[in-house]
Design a protein that fits this description.
This protein is of the alpha+beta class. Helices cover about 15% and strands about 30% of the residues. It has 4 helices and 13 strands. The strands form 4 sheets. A 5-stranded antiparallel sheet has the order 5-6-12-10-11. Strands 1-2-4-3 form a 4-stranded mixed sheet. A two-stranded antiparallel sheet has the order 7-13. The protein starts with a strand and ends in a 12-residue tail after the last helix.
């Protein structure tokens, strides 16, 4: 487990001012056993403000970024960002996630809140989610149905599960079209609000 001290400005996508925090970075699945039951799981900070002094363990999954492609199915760890994953999957002509572009959220964070925009949600592409139970230190696999996805919601908001890996069924789309789709959604978002140093569409 890697441990670093970082300032709120480095942790929050909005570059908010704040305290210094001790952050734990699991580098593999076995490191998850060191997560405390009351730990705060931090994604990429795209919807997080830091204002209080640290009271408990803060864990970032940003080191868990491996992915694997088998046909139309992608197995990706929770710490990879959606723009990174989209760009890497272009070489396989796999698309569908362009509606999230270029929001710098982690895959795990997107699944946690069932990221949605432009009449699409990430749950449409999910097969199953691997997670770690902070309370009893066990790994578990949930089907899409068991994730209880709803508007901006999932089962992960109401229990001790930490999302570790996601299985996605994506669409075969030509790389050029994926690039065009990404540019379309990037421009669409830029006309609504500045894409840097913000907390999203709010």
């Amino acid at each position: 487990m890697l441990i670093s001290t970082l300032n709120a400005k480095e942790l929050s996508y909005s570059h908010c001012l704040g305290e210094n925090y001790i952050i734990h970075f699991p580098e593999n699945i076995s490191d998850l056993n060191e997560i405390h039951e009351d730990a705060f799981i931090l994604g990429r900070g795209t919807n997080t403000l830091f204002k209080n002094k640290q009271k408990g363990q803060i864990v970032s999954l940003s080191k868990l970024t491996n992915y694997e492609v088998k046909g139309n199915i992608v197995y990706a760890e929770a710490g990879i960002t959606l723009p990174t994953l989209i760009n890497k999957l272009m070489t396989y002509n796999l698309g569908g996630l362009e509606f999230t572009y270029p929001i710098l959220t982690s895959l795990g964070g997107a699944v946690y809140q069932n990221f949605g925009a432009y009449e699409k949600t990430i749950s449409e592409y999910i097969i199953e989610v691997n997670c770690f139970n902070k309370k009893n230190k066990t790994l578990k696999t949930l089907t899409k149905q068991e994730c209880l996805f709803n508007y901006r919601s999932s089962v992960f908001k109401a229990n001790d599960y930490v999302i570790t890996r996601v299985s996605l069924l994506l669409e075969k789309i030509d790389k050029i079209l994926i690039e065009k789709n990404c540019e379309h959604f990037k421009i669409k978002r830029e006309t609504a609000y500045p894409l840097s140093y913000n907390l999203g569409s709010i």
